Amino acid sequence: MIKIKAKDVDVFYGKKQALFNISLDIEENQVTALIGPSGCGKSTFLRCLNRMNDVIDICSVKGEILINDFNINDKSCDVVRLREKIGMVFQKPNPFPKTLYENVSYGPTIHGMAQSKQEMDEIVETSLKKAALWEEVKDRLHEPGTGLSGGQQQRLCIARAISVRPEVILMDEPCSALDPIATAQIEELIDELKKEHTIIIVTHSMAQAARVSQNTGFFHLGQLIEHGSTDKIFKNPDNKKTQDYITGRFG
Amino acid sequence: MYSDTFGAVPIFAGTFFIAFIAMCVAIPIGLMSGIYLAEYASTKVRQYAKPLIEILAGIPTVVYGFFAALTVGPFLKELGTSMGLEVSAESALAAGGVMGIMIIPFISSLSDDVITSVPQSLRDGSYAMGATKSETIKRVIFPAALPGIVGSILLGVSRAIGETMIVVMASGLAANLTLNPLESTSTITAQIVVILIGDQAFGDPKTQAAFALGMSLFLVTLCLNIVALRVVKKYREKYE
Amino acid sequence: MNKNKEQLLNKRYKAEQRFRLYGLSAIFMALLFLTIFIFKIFSTGYSAFQKTWLVVPVTFDAELMMLDQNPSKEDLQDADYYDIALKSMADLDPKANEDQENELKRMVSYFFEKEIKNELLNDPNLIGKTKEVYLTASDDLDQVFKGNYPRDLPEDQRRVSDYQLKIFDQLVANGKVESKFNISFFTNADSREAELAGIASSFMGSIFSILVCLMIAFPVAVLAAIYLEEFAPKNRFTDFIEVNINNLAAVPSIVFGLLGLGVLLAIFQLPRSTPLVGGITLSLMTLPTIIIAARASLKAVPPSIREAALAMGASRMQTTMHHTVPLSMPGTLSGTIIGLAQALGETAPLILIGMVAFVNTIPGSPMDPAASLPVQIYIWAESAERGFVEKVSACIMVLLGFLIIMNLFAQIIRHKFEKKWS
Which of A122, B68, B163, C260 could bond C281 through an S-S bridge, CB–CB 3.0 to 4.6 Å? Predict the structure, then answer.
């Protein structure tokens, strides 16, 4: 099942074009990894999927991105509703300067998803459990979220993202600021999460892409060079550039 | 007025009362302008609106005093009369209101700075959750920037308490113990001016009373400033 | 469920719009205040730059002036002009009785005798002839002519009588009332008569105060900043000083006035009401502003410059004086100008050290009693006469003009000369 269908997406920062003609299909309930050297446009593409590029004044996006057959670049698309369905986890953990509980209950509160305190408690608990953080923090839910370690903070951000039960989760190099142990925990979590969510992860680590993803897209200089199943991309790529990148000749 | 005693209670009460009125004007307008400038305004609007608002801080206080006494006071009096209220031409409301206008830029500029220094990653985090801009501001940015904003408000209060000319010219000089903004009250600063405006002997008890008032004014504002500067400094360190 | 969602979303978007509107209206309010403010000042003040003159025929009758044939310059100086002055005013209405003659006299300023005298001193040949002389109208008639005077008040509440108004209207009808640029507003000292009052004395007072302030505050502040930034060890004592400089910048100005009064006047016995004391008091206030600006611009000079100079074998003193300080000057100067602009607008401390005294001479040195522009605003604002209202506004316009120029100047220095380190 195709969840997201990007057709001829161009992105401009002012006059400079950052993405050229990207067309990519993303499968439901699978992990798709976007790899490529830094500055190749993979994060830019990721931010197109929940229209986070709107925040940047000079950025403009052309082309169609269909999610559930609905073009999110259409004028009738409501970004608030879109972002409720598409969660995002950032490169650097960015918990709000509030308590753990408030961090997780933030999304459900603004979207009016809980009718009572009890329901909210449940949502917070399940989200933290799914993010594999519950056991570590259940006794200090009302302490500030900024007091956690880096890996815990990132898992808190994942709990925050899944609290509104998004269909898609975008992850922008979620492990780049973390140590190997925390990275392993998050990778395990990603595997778990794909049962309920479609996951797209940007990573600069090819090993990570190989470990967690089923599909991979390779970006280079703003172009999507090749995409397909992770197995194929890593073992038998069609394109010479992909081959060179995978084997570490540049990047 | 000071026949036997130099009771300072009405003067202190009046000082805080007028400062309170001033902050009632300055905090909402200053804070909302700061927020708008930092979060909503386009670069162009910001480029023009910010320096224009800051002009308000550069106008000498004696000019505000004249404005309050000549325009605002009589205007309020007329307005009050037409509504059947008795408004003194030298009301605490006129002095406090105009003082509030003077303090707007202090609060707006400082809170603008403070809000701008909240890291973008927090905004992104909130937008990615599907929050609207105002929800992001109210629930994420404002709490994050709160210490800095409190600091800027405290600096504003200290300025309101130390302000002299507006009160001397626009509010009364009689120290009334009142909480009615339509009556006239007096402040520490105004009393100092009233006592010392003539040639006074230095040994005179009134002169000494004025110096005592000045001393307490100094201490009160000093405490406010120390607290405010410390709060702002702590806040800055947090996001550097 | 879906409908609920829709409703909630609508509510959220409405809240968003409301919040945005609050912000916009706050900006709008602040700018509205500014506009009202400037409009009010200009609309009441611009007329003060015009002065109303009555053109009155004066007959220089030698007999009335008690002058001999062929009088010398001294004779002209000493002659008695009061009678011809009175007579020329009385002649405006030949049917006037004694009371009315008095009223006629009060249509012009008390200075009219002098104005007639100057006319003759300029042209001694006028003796025995009649000439139309420009006489300063009284402040009330000045206001009538400018349309600021409520003519429909009952007569006993006006300072202008019906009779004066009648004669004045006749003069207007005959084209004998003229409005000219008010030079005396800039050249006269303060006066109890609104039509003669000018800002020259307070202007000079301000200039002297600012100069004294500059001469004290600038060197002290720059040296303090250099020491703190370049030489001082980082310890608790310098930390303490640093915190207190910041605190000092936020101390109410009136406290500095008390300091001036209690120390400069009471202990050092410096002369009261003088720009010297005013300037010293203001310099205490300006110090922290300049120190903070100077330190910021010293800090902005990149360490690589210092290292380069030190590596060339320059001493620390040489490095500072030859490289760091010159490079930091634009920032320091613009901070100084902004500090001086603040000092120029300051009123309360000057009132306390007595610069509020009535001064009707133009001060020639910082040791002469004087007022300053803001204090002049305060003095005039407290006067009851209607004529002073426009004077206050005009004085405010002059003061604001100076502040704008100073701030622009500071901006220009900052943008033109400040090096951008990347």
Answer: C260
Q: Parallel, antiparallel, or unpaired: how do β-strands A198-202 and A168-172 relate?
A: parallel
Element at C9 (helix H, strand E): helix C2-45
Provide the pairing of β-strand C177-181 with C130-136. Answer: unpaired
Return the residue matching tokens 């113990």.
B177
List the structure tokens of A193: 């999460």
A90 contacts in chain B (CB < 8 Å): 121, 124-125, 128
Matching residue, tokens 């990132």: A154
Contact B66 C392 (CB under 8 A): yes
pLDDT confidence of residue C99: 81
Q: Which of A75-84, A170-179, B169-178, C409-418 is least confident?
A: B169-178
At the top level of CATH, which class does the domain B9-239 belong to? mainly alpha
Sign of CA dihedral B198, B203, B205, B211: positive
CA distance A52 to chain C (A): 18
Reduced to 3 states, what is the DSSP secondary structure of residue B182?
A: coil
- Domains of chain A, with CATH numbers? 2-246 (3.40.50.300)
pTM comes to 0.85
Task: Enumerate the β-bridge partners of residue A171.
Answer: A89, A201
pLDDT of residue B4: 43
pLDDT exceeds cutoff 70 at B199: no
- Residue that is written with structure tokens 């400033």 in the block: B225
H or E, element range at A225: strand A223-229
- Nearest residue in chain B measured CA to CA from C267: B202
Query: Between A100-110 and A117-130, two packed helices, what is the crossing angle to 10 degrees?
Result: 110
Its ipTM equals 0.88
**Cα–Cα distance measured from residue A106 to residue A109, given in angstroms and rounded to the nearest whole number:** 5
| CATH architecture of the domain with residue range C200-417 | Orthogonal Bundle (1.10)
Structure tokens at C149: 């005077």
